[in-house]
Specification:
4-stranded antiparallel beta sheet, two-stranded antiparallel sheet, alpha+beta
């Protein structure tokens, strides 16, 4: 059976799902337990995140946890405004597997 080739549209969609790794102190602590933190698209599902991660890094994760981030509120010229909301994913790899995020 032949391998399925990825098209340009699929590659672009995967880049939109898995935006970039989060480089923070909390994310660095999570790496000690083989968990990596990424910013992901707001409407991305866990299975889509897994597929995008496998396509980009060639490792199958054990577990994917997602966290929705609330939009921050602020006042500008006396009116209430909101910043952008987001979503992040904690991707856990098996022991012994690592990826290069920087």
């Amino acid at each position: 059976m032949a391998k399925k080739e990825t098209t340009k549209k699929e590659v672009v969609k995967q880049d939109l799902i898995l935006k970039n790794p989060r480089i923070t102190e909390k994310a660095a602590r999570a790496q000690s337990t083989n968990a990596y933190v990424f910013d992901v698209a707001i409407d991305a599902t866990k299975s889509e995140i897994t597929k995008a991660f496998v396509a980009k890094y060639k490792h199958k994760p054990i577990k994917v946890n997602t966290v929705n981030q609330k939009a921050k509120s602020f006042f500008r010229r006396g009116k209430l405004g909101f910043g952008s909301k987001g979503r992040k994913a904690y991707i856990t790899l098996p022991k012994g597997k690592t990826i290069e995020v920087m």
